[in-house]
C-alpha cells in the first residue's frame, strides 16, 4: 500500500492555494493507494492572543474557525468523488496546546465520526512574550526560544518534554514530524549534536509510542529545509523505530501540488530496508 499520510489543502493559508483536487490527482498519477488530508485546524482566539506575532502572520498559521465546517464537508465530497481511484482519508493535524486542551477536545468531539485520522504535532512552545512557533525562521527560533531557555539543547529538551506530554494526553494515531525542533539544526552551532539526555528522552517517547500502538510520521519536508536537510525523524530514530516495529507512515507534508509524494524513494530506502526480516 502506497500512502501519503500527511498533506495540506487549499484551506491552508500558508499553502500554495492550489485546489485540493489537483493534489489528489497528482497522488493518483504517482500511484498512491491512500491519501490522507491533514489540514491544520483553526487555533482558538485565546491562544492567538498569546502569540507575539503580527496579525498577518498569526492568520497565516491555520484556517479560520468559520472554515472548518466547509473543510470537512468539502473533503468528504472529494473522498466520494475519487473513491474508485484512490482511498482518501479525511483528517486534521492537531496542535498540542497545553493551556487549551479543551479546544482540541472540542474539535475531536464536534467532528467525531467525520475524522478518519488525526496527526498530533507540537508546533508551539512557551517562549519570549508568549507562545512561539518552533518552525518559523532561525531568527525567530533564536529570539523566541533560545533566548528564553538559554541554548539550543535546552529548547530541544523542552520540545521533547512537551511532545511526550502531548502523546500521553491525546493518545494520537500518529505523531507528526517527531524531530521538528531540529528544523534549523545546521544554522546553530552544535545543532547537530544530540546530548545523551535528549537521546534518552527520545527513546522514552518511542517506547510510549510503541506501548500506545501509534505510528510515526516519516515526514520528508525536512529534507527540503535548508537548515534541516533530513527527513523528520532523524535516521537513527527511524532505525530504532524499525527495530521496535513502530509503524512509520510516509508523509510529504505537501503544501503545494508538486510536493505530493516527494522523496518517497527515501522512505522506501530508510524504512522498508531497515524493517526486521521475518
Ligand atoms: Zn502547514
Ligand atoms: Zn506540522
From TrEMBL:
Belongs to the PHP hydrolase family. HisK subfamily. It comes from Thermoflavimicrobium dichotomicum. Pathway: Amino-acid biosynthesis; L-histidine biosynthesis; L-histidine from 5-phospho-alpha-D-ribose 1-diphosphate: step 8/9. It is an enzyme of class 3 (hydrolase). It catalyses: L-histidinol phosphate + H2O = L-histidinol + phosphate. This is Histidinol-phosphatase. One of its GO terms (cellular component) is cytoplasm. Gene3D superfamilies: Metal-dependent hydrolases (3.20.20.140). Its EC number is 3.1.3.15. One of its GO terms (molecular function) is histidinol-phosphatase activity. One of its GO terms (biological process) is L-histidine biosynthetic process. Residues 4-221 form the PHP domain. Coiled coil: none annotated. Keywords: Amino-acid biosynthesis, Histidine biosynthesis, Hydrolase.
Amino acid at each position: 500500500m502506497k500512502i501519503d499520510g500527511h498533506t495540506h489543502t487549499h484551506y491552508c493559508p500558508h499553502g500554495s492555494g492550489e485546489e485540493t483536487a489537483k493534489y489528489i490527482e497528482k497522488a493518483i498519477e504517482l500511484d498512491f493507494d491512500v491519501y490522507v488530508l491533514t489540514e491544520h485546524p483553526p487555533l482558538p482566539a485565546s491562544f492567538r492572543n498569546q502569540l507575539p506575532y503580527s496579525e498577518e502572520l498569526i492568520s497565516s498559521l491555520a484556517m479560520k474557525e468559520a472554515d472548518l465546517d466547509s473543510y470537512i464537508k468539502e473533503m468528504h465530497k472529494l473522498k466520494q468523488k475519487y473513491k474508485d481511484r484512490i482511498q482518501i482519508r479525511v483528517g486534521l493535524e492537531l496542535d498540542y496546546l497545553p493551556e487549551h486542551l479543551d479546544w482540541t477536545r472540542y474539535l475531536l468531539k464536534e467532528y467525531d465520526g467525520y475524522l478518519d485520522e488525526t496527526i498530533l504535532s507540537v508546533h508551539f512552545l512557551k517562549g519570549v512574550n508568549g507562545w512561539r512557533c518552533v518552525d518559523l525562521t532561525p531568527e525567530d527560533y533564536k529570539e523566541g526560544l533560545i533566548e528564553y531557555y538559554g541554548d539550543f539543547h535546552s529548547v530541544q529538551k523542552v520540545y521533547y518534554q512537551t511532545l511526550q506530554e502531548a502523546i500521553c494526553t491525546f493518545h494520537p494515531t500518529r505523531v507528526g514530524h517527531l524531530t521538528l525542533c531540529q528544523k534549523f539544526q545546521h544554522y546553530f552551532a552544535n545543532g547537530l549534536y544530540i546530548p545523551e539526555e535528549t537521546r534518552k528522552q527520545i527513546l522514552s517517547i518511542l517506547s510510549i509510542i510503541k506501548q500506545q500502538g501509534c505510528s510515526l510520521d516519516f515526514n520528508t519536508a525536512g529534507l527540503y529545509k535548508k537548515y534541516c536537510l533530513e527527513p523528520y525523524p532523524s535516521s537513527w530514530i527511524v532505525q530504532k523505530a524499525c527495530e521496535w516495529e513502530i509503524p512509520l507512515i510516509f508523509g510529504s507534508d505537501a503544501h503545494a501540488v508538486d510536493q505530493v509524494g516527494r522523496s518517497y524513494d527515501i522512505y522506501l530506502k530508510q524504512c522498508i530496508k531497515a524493517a526486521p526480516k521475518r
